[in-house]
């Protein structure tokens, strides 16, 4: 039961194969058994989840189902407000905090009838690393508990990959949904900037923060996005799951090889997985050709300057008054923001606009881009220098900077058994085409069917 997708759960409810209460109790038992090893949850709301399941059961069996996610369990990254619960951001700084109202995205998912199982671990304030000097232990990779699960949405990735939950929420400012998706072998979607509300989500870098779904299948990610997304302008609500089964024949895919072949030199197994993915998409009827964007270093430099400055504006007072309450890793990442000037911020913003224009220009020739995600498989969780080295070897940050939607998918296994991942990038507000290509790749490959043995 714990490996079922959200879509399969909804079908099971309709057929009365099992009930929301039965499913929720089963998953809570699994959380109680496995969380001490993988540390995905920092708090579990047993009573609230069971009560929500009872209410969902009565409504669904009474003919009042709210939609395909009614009664489906969800985990929430502990940077997102849920009324009456702490939002600690995995930090001593906010241990006493209690949210007085739901974040906007939580309000929408509550209205969809989802069951909130608890709060999930993260890197401190969504910028630290896997630290051992915090109130909660770091989440671990279910494929190998000695390895890093990615971050900063580490608990979200670990929980979904371990079968503790079918769905979770993550946030993504420099790749923090797509990195855990890569390390843990799941699906992680960063939608177009501001398609999902950030109200009630603790700010890291306001001009690049995104909230998004983490799931084991593309269909589940699309269903969760349906419930999360805000209207775009005068556009009618979009059903992001509607086109998932459509052929991708004739779609134009640009393969951004230079990110992982010259700008960075990816691990050979990562490069092979990307080349194989290009062949799969071509076999499915897409026209795949090499695409070129500005150098990866240009994106990373502009993103780093903007993020550091914006992070400092959030944390300056606490860093001056309570520096000892941050993990050492987090302090090292935040403090450089104190030394940036307004002129440097403006220059970085000017570079950002040029880079956005360059990516938009590329999309005149392509419908979707195939891009590296992480350049390396997950490293050991206790190897901080390697975590720092490998985290900067990635191609996720460009699309936080530009705001384009991007999805991470499992693309194979390394020789050590850890997942490999790819990234697909779409035009702004064209999540439908992006998800369509991702779903076609998923159907044609076996990777989403693999699970870690716990």
TrEMBL record:
Matches recorded under PANTHER family: AMIDASE AMID-RELATED, TRANSAMIDASE
Classification via InterPro entries: Amidase, Amidase_CS, Amidase_dom, AS_sf
Task: Specify the protein name.
Answer: Aspartyl-tRNA(Asn)/glutamyl-tRNA(Gln) amidotransferase subunit A
Keywords assigned: Transferase
Listed Pfam families? Amidase
The Amidase domain covers 22-435
Q: Which organism is it from?
A: Jezberella montanilacus
Bilayer-crossing regions: none
Source taxon at top rank: Bacteria
Q: Which GO terms describe its molecular function?
A: transferase activity
